[in-house]
């Protein structure tokens, strides 16, 4: 209860939450939860897939899946901190972005996602990574402007 009052008081005292922060928070909240749920259902065998997709996913280790969950979790923590206008959001989002880049590079080196993913899917992945990079840049700019404390 006191934390809610503090956030409301901070916002009222001049640190207004930009609309883009709301949009980022809601978008990544929904998409991160969807990723976690989808990964769980795929791992549990609750999703019908073509044999090629099943063979492709069989190449991923438990550690690969853990990294996926950690990345989604870090993203949730980072956007929640951004929503709370905390300066630590920049570091957490940058860490999540770096982990995303690293895990994507590892997947591309170890497997051939183009074999089971459409060009649209690959472009969507690239767009998603680019958007996340822009979120990190935006949060850094908010920090430099003094919006994050």
What's the quick description here?
By secondary structure, the protein is mostly helical. The chain has helices at residues 2-12, 19-43, 51-58, 62-83, 88-110, 119-145.
How would you sum up this structure, described in words?
This protein is elongated. It has one domain (18-145). It has 149 residues and is mainly α. Helices cover 78% and strands 0% of the residues. Helix 2 (19-43) runs antiparallel to helix 4. It has helices at 2-12, 19-43, 51-58, 62-83, 88-110, 119-145. The two termini are 20 Å apart. The chain contains six helices and no strands.
Q: How are the SSEs placed, and which strands pair?
A:
Blueprint: H1 2-12, H2 19-43, H3 51-58, H4 62-83, H5 88-110, H6 119-145
Keywords: Membrane, Transmembrane, Transmembrane helix
Transmembrane segments: 20-46, 66-85, 92-110, 122-143
Protein name: DUF4345 domain-containing protein
Keywords:
149 residues; mainly alpha; 6 helices; elongated
What is the share of helical residues? over 70%
N-to-C series of helices and strands = HHHHHH
What is Rg? 18 Å
Q: pLDDT average, as an integer?
A: 86
The main pleated sheet reads as: none
Strand content: under 5%
What's the β-strand tally? 0
Cα separation of the termini = 20 Å
Structural class designation: mainly alpha
- Number of domains as seen in the coordinates: 1
DSSP helical segment count: 6
């Amino acid at each position: 209860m006191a934390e809610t009052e503090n956030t409301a008081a901070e916002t009222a005292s001049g640190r207004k939450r930009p609309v883009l922060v709301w949009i980022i928070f809601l978008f990544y909240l929904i998409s991160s939860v969807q990723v976690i749920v989808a990964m769980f259902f795929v791992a549990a065998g609750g999703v019908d897939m073509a044999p090629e997709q099943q063979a492709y996913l069989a190449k991923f280790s438990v550690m690969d899946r853990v990294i996926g969950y950690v990345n989604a979790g870090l993203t949730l923590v980072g956007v929640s901190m951004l929503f709370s206008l905390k300066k630590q959001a920049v570091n957490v989002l940058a860490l999540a972005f770096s982990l995303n880049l690293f895990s994507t590079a590892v997947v591309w080196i170890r497997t051939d996602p183009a074999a089971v993913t459409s060009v649209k899917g690959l472009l969507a992945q690239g767009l998603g990574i680019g958007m996340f990079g822009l979120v990190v840049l935006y949060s850094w700019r908010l920090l430099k402007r003094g919006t994050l404390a």
